[in-house]
Amino acid sequence: MLDLNQSETGVSGEQAEEPAGRTRHPAPLRPYLIAAVVLCALYFLYGYLRYSHFQSPSWDLGIFEQEVRAYAGFDAPVVDIKGPGYLILGDHFSPVVALLVPLYWIWPSAVALLFAQAALFAGSAVVVGRTVQQILGGRAGLCATVAYGLSWGLQEAVKADFHEIAFAVPLLALVCRALLMERWRAVVLWSLPLVLVKEDLGVTVAVVGLLLALYGRRLQGFLLAAFGVFAFALTVLVLIPAASSAGTYDYWKKIEENGGQEVSLLDSVLGVLDSSVKLEMLVFLVGITAFMALRSPLVLLVLPTLGWRLLSQDSNHWGMVWHYSAILMPVVFLAMADGVRRSQGSKRPWLVSYANVAVPMAAAVAVALTQHLPLRELLRPETYRADARTHAAEEALDAVPVGARVETDITLMAHLTSDRTVYWVGGAPGTAPDVVAINLDFGWSQPIDDPVKYAQQLHPEARYRVTRVAGSFVVMERTTKVPENG
């Protein structure tokens, strides 16, 4: 279904900057800025409510705040949650998050990261909506803004708290826009920073280069493709191992191992579509564009991300949840616009008719799916109420002294990282933290009947006493002194 020509009438990508017969429709900025403000408010409100109600789904928000806090203090990006003294650049190569430092100086809180992500996602909606408007005209731009803004990939990413891919979303939107507008220099310039967002995006940059070559910009394309491959190899083979205490890139194991058992590359490839979860994700990925994304070469940009996800033995990478699909959203929606434009020049009347309703259809699908997606929670009154668990968690937080070294689980973690040294519970042997604060309802593999005994099992060199019990939360302080090197 892919077609490198601009339409079936044969307008080639090698032609001039403004090919004959191509119309650029007016796209006033104000409506899209208003839409972006609304989307930013929705994303941030949802994220803030989950944060304030202690519903963080993982340790990632705490990890990223520790990283940004380190940069803000002009220190190496040490993330103690991953282990005492752990250099986070040995895990994923995402120096781009240092751009959050000015915001963090003003607002030193994990909430600042949630706001930044909401703003970046909303900003990408402006790029997507205005581009669709300029290409297709009519009301297509606003329909696309709704469809994109409510897309399941962005909603699930907002639910998953903050991740570095928040920067890749607007960058990829700008890359795709530049490709569609045939602004070749802009394609290159917007692609280059992607390698600073996450190590695997070097492969995506390489595919952008291949697209440039296919569109006729061969020298630029091959140079960009070579840069992307070089950047990927440099980060995973040199930079990350150099920063890692293990001296390797640990995430190869996601492809090579399943439950501790080695898996051959052939088995990984043969198992790419062996799960209904994977198939469902793929169908919804193109289905939200009324399948029009398949009519555009831009859709090739999803392949690097889909490749490692489908090869991974970690089931968290396969489906529609978490943040992994967010970077695919600008690609498929701008590919949809390109696919519609191509189809409108078709000699097949049915395809032309379908193309003319594809964008409104995508908006309708997005609105309908939202009834089953995270933002639906904003329509429920109970979402805004603080329950007994929330009040208990707040009481536990108040019992942890500012500046303390505290070992805790996911529930309290992101609320402590702004002004305490935070460790993952069980992940800091030998540190004898000042405080151990745990949520007994966290979901431990074995129930914790005696919290004090549990704390002393974690740190036999110290002794702890309970200083606060609030609901399922227990806060324990160290009662014995330990050597400074302990």
Task: Considering the chains and any ligands shown, give keywords for the structure.
single chain, 486 residues, two-stranded antiparallel ribbon, 2 domains, alpha/beta, five-stranded mixed beta sheet
What's a concise summary of this model?
The chain has helices spanning 29-52, 60-72, 101-106, 110-136, 140-149, 152-159, 165-180, 184-191, 201-214, 218-243, 253-256, 265-270, 276-287, 303-311, 329-344, 349-369, 388-398, 410-416, 451-458, and strands spanning 257-258, 261-262, 405-408, 421-424, 435-439, 464-470, 473-478. It is of the alpha/beta class and 486 residues long.
Structural summary, described in words:
This protein has 19 helices and seven strands. The protein is an alpha/beta fold and 486 residues long. A hairpin with a 2-residue loop joins strand 6 (464-470) and strand 7 (473-478). The relative contact order is 0.12. The model is unreliable at 5-21 (pLDDT under 50). The chain has a five-stranded mixed sheet, with helices on both faces. The chain has a two-stranded antiparallel sheet with strand order 1-2. Helix 1 runs antiparallel to helix 4 and helix 4 (110-136) packs parallel to helix 15. It has two domains: 29-379, no CATH class; 388-478, no CATH class.
Low-confidence stretches: 5-21
Order of helices and strands: HHHHHHHHHHHEEHHHHHHEHEEHEE
Number of domains: 2
Q: Write out the strand line-up for the largest beta sheet, numbering strands in chain order.
A: 4-3-5-7-6
Distance between the termini: 63 Å
Net shape: globular
Q: Quickly count the helices.
A: 19
